[in-house]
């Protein structure tokens, strides 16, 4: 299925995996609409992408803002959501409010965005959400993310049936070197990535580009729905 001239919305398309996905869709000659909260990130990403790109603000946790966003976008063909903020910490120590805030972002943000998008999705289109390998194999301190990611994968199986013939899938990345880790001192980040790389069968952490290809595959492959694409360098095996 060609993506040429198809309109692709990437919520979270201003950073990391979403920005790389926006670039990958442009490389397929699609028209790309990127979205996130920050006006400055939107304008930086638009200049970096340098193609057929529109950019609009959205806070995907808000039903009202999601509805306003899709009214601006109008009809489109493929929805990709990579936006989302998680919460890490041991179950006993992580405040319940922090776990709820992570659900509000990564789970409810994706749910709300899909809900608001439906009237605008053209027939023959697709929806691809984002979970993460911690849904399958959580390390210590990841019980909230394990629950969120598993919830998203369950939601996707339900949506693939409820929204048919629109195809609905989910990408589950392993550890990816993105600005998600920008708050961590460089040395600590380097040690984290090196330690993880040593454990992984592929011997390295992912780039955003590694993961971006999966969103393009799922938008193009007309026989894939209700699927989880786990792209984790073998993290679920070790
Ligand atoms: N990186 C990893 O190792 C990894 C591993 C497994 C799963 N994942 C998942 O992959 C997804 C993307 O991660 P990433 O590493 O690419 O993160 P990132 O570089 O931090 O990018 C996150 C994007 O989401 C947007 N965003 C965050 N909250 C938003 C909101 N409320 N409304 C609208 N946009 C929002 C951000 O822009 P604004 O700040 O402008 O809103 C940004 O564009 C996340 O769901 C993450 O949990 C990542």
Give a verbal description of the structure.
The structure is a single chain. The protein has one domain: NAD(P)-binding Rossmann-like Domain (Rossmann fold, 3-Layer(aba) Sandwich). The chain has a seven-stranded parallel β-sheet, sandwiched between helices. Strand 5, helix 5 and strand 6 form a beta-alpha-beta unit. Helix 1 packs across helix 7 and helix 4 runs parallel beside helix 5. The mean pLDDT is 97. It has 238 residues and is α/β, with parallel strands linked by helices. The longest helix is centred in the middle third of the chain and has 22 residues. The protein starts with 6 loop residues before the first strand and ends in a 7-residue tail after the last strand. The site of NADP nicotinamide-adenine-dinucleotide phosphate has 30 residues, from helix 1 and helix 4.
Task: Give the SSE layout.
Elements: E1 7-11, H1 16-27, E2 31-36, H2 39-49, E3 53-57, H3 63-73, E4 76-81, H4 96-117, E5 121-130, H5 143-162, E6 167-173, H6 186-199, H7 208-220, E7 228-231
Helix pairs in contact: 1-7, 3-4, 4-5
Bound molecules: NADP nicotinamide-adenine-dinucleotide phosphate (NAP).
Relevant terms:
single chain, 238 residues, alpha/beta, Rossmann fold, 7-stranded parallel β-sheet, 7 helices, binds NADP nicotinamide-adenine-dinucleotide phosphate
Query: What average pLDDT do the residues reach?
Result: 97
Rg, Cα atoms, Å = 17 Å
Q: Give the low-pLDDT segments.
A: none
Structural class: alpha/beta
As a percent range, the share of strand residues is: 15-25%
